[in-house]
Amino acid sequence: MQPAKGYTLTDQYFHDFVETTRISGIKHIFRGRSKIRRIMWALFFISSFVGCTLVVGKNIARYIEKPTASSIKVIPHDNGMRFPSVTICNINIYKDPNVSAVSKETYSLIYYLFNSDTKEYNSTQECIDNATEYYKKHDIWSSLLPKENNFIHDCSFSYETGVISCKDMFYPVLTPAGICYTFNDFKMNEMLIPNITSGMKYGLKLVLNIEEERYPAFEGKTGAQIIVHERNDIPRPNLAGISVPPGQNIDIGFIKAIKNDKTDSRDCINDGEKKLDFLPDVVYSKFACQENELYERLASNCNCTINPYGLDVTNTSNCSLSNLCCMRQQYSKYNRNSSCKSPCKYTFYNLKNSYSSFPRGRTLTEISKTVKMNKSAIRDNFLSVHVFLLDLETKETYSHNSFDISELLGELGGTMGLFLGINILAIVEVIILILDEIKKYLCPKKCKQKLNKIENCIPECALSRGRNDTLLTDPVSTPEKENHETPYTTAVDIDN
Question: Which InterPro entries match (predicted)?
Fold first, then answer.
């Protein structure tokens, strides 16, 4: 049979690639019956290749951006839930520290150090005299506590089977807003507070007295701040507090929620990765980490520390009034060079609140008899708080990568299959063709001879081994006639 007229593929590697490739359209380009068909297939292939490249580029760019998605898991609590901690703060700091000979400058400095909303203390002022024995006898923490605490006028905790009087179940804590008081603190026995169910008739009910005369409104604001948080977390009134003015009642319903970041690009701390030496019983948070760093600096530079939680974790003494100037220097560097990161997983509470007037009617009469104040003064100083559970469930939100490596490979495979009809084996074929061509032009002559020798040896060795196996298994068999095959022709004629 006479070969058809056309051009010939003289490159053995490329010829083998055209004959065996899994890429759709290649054979039509080089083996078409007419030039028009070959040109049309070449244009179709180029267009598909360009489209495939653009889509693949977009998929890779999307993967590099690392998009995220969130999913919500609802955890039911049919047998009730543990009640969280509730911290209450008087918006205004206590007027008279618990020492008798403190100057205005000393008090102003204390107010600046322990209230993050206060304007910066005048650093050009002459520092207080810290050499007196009187100042050395009074530690900072004791000086901050009021002589008498009338802030909590009444407290009750209601659950399904009873009511607990809880006026004496509050512990003083140091927060960015100064001294506050926490109910159900981690120092308190957790079993004293039973599980509760949802509903407004259960939960914590408070009547607070802000004592405006003893807590004057330096910045024109009065009232209290309420914070709902985990038992072993440091409350942050300035971040998560709800303000309640005097003469008002607030009903706060809460739903427990958990945020869990599982993305690859997260820059956060997992549970147990960072130890807080000065706050061992406190759950990790960025603020707790910063407080721990501050206490470390105080212990290192001032030879003292603040111990508002009563934890005996170090041998460092409590800071006294004589350490105020050193403390001011350390507080001025607070958070500037902090290495603290946010936690990857943390618990918080979604709050819903509503307001109403308080006190009125019989309640107003009963309070006036107890505190011996007129009704107008009561409305200027008293307020009511009710904290209760909205739903018996916890909503956990997971943040994860929505386009990871598996999704990328799936998109790439689908795109290349749609536009070019190829898979990963076809890509391997192209890579092998490129390597063969590189070997053809760059490989030295001796290297080619060695490769050819190896390639020629492999079939002979296999044939020799096959013959030996045949002789061993069938010694009486007669040799077959040798078949002389025609050598493979690398040149192929292509029709016009």
Answer: ENaC
